[in-house]
Amino acid sequence: MSESAPTTASILPILLPPPTLRPLAFRVFTKKHSLTITASSLQSLATFVGRNCGSGWREEGLAELVLDEIAKVWKKRGGGVILEDSESGNALLKSILRTMEANMSGGRVIIRDHARSTSGSALTLGHETADTEPGRAGNANERGQNSNEESLEIGDDSSLNDTRRWIKIISAFEQNRPVYNISKKNFDIITTPPSLFPPPSQRANLLRDRYNLIYQRLLRNEAFQIPLQGSTSSLSSMQRSYKLTSIANLLGRTGTSHLLLGLLSMSPAGDLSLTDLTGSITLDITHARAVPEDGAWFAPGMIVLVDGIYREEEVISGSTLNGSSGVGGAIGGRFTVASVGGPPCERREASTGASHRGEDGDMTVEGGFGWVDFLGVGSERSKGYRMRQIEKICLRKGQPSEQQEIRKRIVVMSEVNLDVPKTEGALTHVFESYASLAEEQMPLVFILIGNFVQHAIISGGGSGGSIECKEYFDILASILSNYPRLLQNATFVFVPGDNDPWASAYSAGSSTTVPRDAIPDLFTSRVKRAFTNANNEIPARTKSTPGQAIWSSNPARLSLFGPVHELVVFRDDISERLRRTSIFFKPQKALDDLNPTDGDMEVEKLDTEEPHSEERDGEKEREELQQQQQQIQNSTTTTQKNLHASRKLVKTILDQSHLSPFPQHIRPVLWDYAPVLHLYPLPTAMILADSSADPFAVTYEGCHVMNPGRLIPEGSRSLVRWIEYDVAKRKGSVKEERF
Predict the structure, then answer these.
(1) What region holds the DNA polymerase alpha/delta/epsilon subunit B domain (predicted)?
(2) Structural domain count, the chain
(3) Whole-model pTM above 0.90?
């Protein structure tokens, strides 16, 4: 017999009832590993423990060790959080128990030498360990040096190691529509078919769902939770915690200070008011200040936190537009606002519960809404662990020396105006810079964002008619046909803008409804044919994922490795709209007075420090030096302003957890599709294509937000800009070159 074969010790099997094993199973599976067992799974475990551990299952602690090993293998082999008795779950559990039984001796699991040398469980090799002959045990370790690859059984399949295989583009019209249920304190997925003509009650539900979503997020914040400690030790903590008051509860409490959460809106009388689920009240923002100072936008349609004092009316008005109508309507009096702020944001890890790392560095799921499948690609608790293992293999995380040779980039171009002659040269320059790279270094995805035509498509014809638009996309097809290697090895995603057909036929370039559907096939047939021709040239033996062109909606979402990596793509000139509709707060007077003076003092200091010279050459040199210093100072000031504007925009959108926090008359929303506009949980990254703002790449609360700006900046003749996003680092950078 081989030395590695275990020697079998005598065990007296017993009949172990499942209720007797339940407390131990709960402690091991649920408390330690965050797993849930069903009745049928508990029956299988009780039978297995009784047969293989015998009478010493409790006294000698054999059962706890065995159950702990089963839980580790279940997680390593990609099992869900529930040891379910469905077909897949039952087959996986039976396979684990068979493998475990073949590697047990005396009620204990025997760890072989090659398994001990790898990290993780003794049975990470799955069924292969049990079925392999003892003499071939050493070869198993040589075949797969990464234990994670062997546990997932994808190490030998090169097609599964292709990152593009795990990319999925999700249209807004195909995405799950989760709605927060205030009574269940969980999310419900709407299964009823959506309609473009829903009942009028759906408009009220749209705002109610937004409020409930932010309200529950706010209550989960530590600043709004009173610690459950002794009254003496927690006195200071209780004073620092915040408490929300509903608007209806302000009645009869004049002169008291309160913190309100509600929707900013304009009353029928034209006054600024705040509305929640219980009523509305008029706001007095004469002495209000924004928190932080000039750090976010505040406009009607946004949900905000308002701190101030309520003052009742001494004489109640009659049945006028701004009169009192009690609970459920506009209550009398005014709320004198001291400060206004946005609801604090919540990180993605806190929302999904994936915020704890185990001893092996793997993410574990606890709390949050890990069970909810927000996008239709699987929930965090069901697929998150397995997908993170695949991500490590595909992106080779932990191996910096090899990361340079993997495909991990996404290229983003916005405002690709095909009717502008210079766009053809700009696209050619960008595509040529990537087509010359090796296949291992090519980008995974090219995202081209509209407007694809500079002026709105009008069905009446003319220079902006549908025939001309079709010709513009034919030009794009001819450009793409010059780079067959890119078409064969990358995914091209096209996201429309407000000027693109057919939505612009009735909006004439104004704000269309969101979400909006993809560009019709009538215009894109030639582009799709270019991809078909390029893929036909690929040899049949090639296992790589073929290139494809996906015409998606606006907004669209890109899922990479299931629920692990989410990228939101949204095209909207939101900065322009915020500047038009935002509320103006009086700035701090000291800052306004000091800033111009400081700037003048620096210039004057530069003038006085220059030595006086009567020579002509010295004067020229001094003037040139002053001009250079002035240019540097101006560019630095402009950069700081642009950075501040980008941070202000990003904070506003992510705090609102919504892509379009505006009233319906400013930015219409399809009522039944409103849940797809929510940014909850926060995406991993977001492309906010705003042509009215300068390009930026900013990270806020773990969400990396990028704006590629215009492909060809205004006033530029030969400058091209785009964004390059690194999937492994989860960071983007603005690229700028001349063509």
Answers:
(1) 410-696
(2) 1
(3) no
